[in-house]
Amino acid sequence: MIFADNWATRARLWFPAVDHPSDKATVAFDVTAPSRMEIVANGTLQEVTDLGEGRTRTRWAESSEIPTYCMVIGAADFAIDTAGEVDGIEVSHWTFPADSAAGAAAFARSTEILWFYDSLFGPYPYEKLAHVQSSTRFGGMENASAIFYDQDTIGDALAASPGQAGDAQDGLTSLVAHETVHQWFGDAVTEKDWHHLWLSEGFATYFAAVFFEFNGGARGRGQAELMRQMREMMGPVFEYEAQAGEPIYAPASGSGDYTHLLNPNNYQKGAWVLHMLRHFVGDRAFFGGIRDYYASLRDGTAWTADFERVMEEASGEELGWFFAQWVGRAGHPALEVESASAGGRRTRVVVRQVQPGEPFRLFLDLALRWPGSERRETVELTAREAAFVFETPARLAEVAVDPDGWLLHELAATRPETGSESAPK
Length: 425
Description:
Blueprint: E1 2-3, E2 25-34, E3 38-41, E4 44-52, E5 55-66, E6 73-76, E7 79-86, E8 89-95, H1 100-106, H2 110-121, E9 128-134, E10 140-141, E11 146-150, H3 151-155, H4 165-184, E12 189-191, H5 198-215, H6 222-244, H7 265-281, H8 283-297, E13 300-302, H9 304-315, H10 320-326, E14 334-341, E15 346-353, E16 362-370, E17 373-381, E18 385-391, E19 398-401, E20 410-415
Helix pairs in contact: 2-4, 4-5, 5-6, 5-7, 6-7, 7-8, 8-9
């Protein structure tokens, strides 16, 4: 078998190209190979010609402009399964014959995933969607219309013990969702420069979690499942920030070896940027803006500023401060919260930002809880410390910070009026 694997600048090793994401092009491949092999590539199958003597020429052509890192061929003895159609797009699974059952398990939700994103983002940008077991060096590689997956990940799809089967299936579903999102964001709308990679990887990471929010998995669905997945992403973000101390957009970082960009800043923190933006502008503006961003830049390229502009138009909000803070600045807020009686049924709540550097601008949700009930309040923070007084029907038992998980932050401590201190979060 043989597979191309181009990311980031390896396309130039086997065909002449301006090997950069800003230079997109249509592509066609004529592949001459032993007749026992099936050939997969970008676009639609144009022609298969028997050349005799056990050789076949196969032609594939992609009519949309795509980045060079997505231009690939694969040749192997495949078992090919047509999973179905979504809005006229054929979904197929290409696995090695010995792994066809594992492939069926790994790709079990592939048509459901495509239907969801086709409805969420706008029409799927290519002529087909093939999920292909391959020898890629990545877990998955989002080649336009022909996604390649690591052969061992697919081959081991049935290997989980019964007690872990649900989580294992969700892991595969998440991988398929992630790579499918890339068909819109990364392939159709491509970052104009590698240092804007979060426009690809952050989108794929976040919207893979959104799939489970709306469609569910072994651990459930809805806001609770989205919050669980987002909080799981916090750890890698905090660890990377402690190690690297750089923002998402760090053009001076690294060299021509772009693999250093495959880091939690572009994946998990990029996902958090979208999550926080969604909360700030609201679902209607957020998802409408995402659709507008895709529609207006489809088959083209984008800077972060392009995404900012589209989201400003969709929301009516000025968002320069938001992107400067979360994309152009390193770090995250660390908060201390202290509450004390202000007399009667009034409570004074003090919020401090204790992280190094300047304070962040935050819109912080608080849950004010008293026996039998609660109320939500949103406060704006721009200074290192701010105090707020709330009147409630009864004395507060608790002030919960960011109860629904919309803010990337660490909670350094909370101090209720008793003076006791909770464990660090």
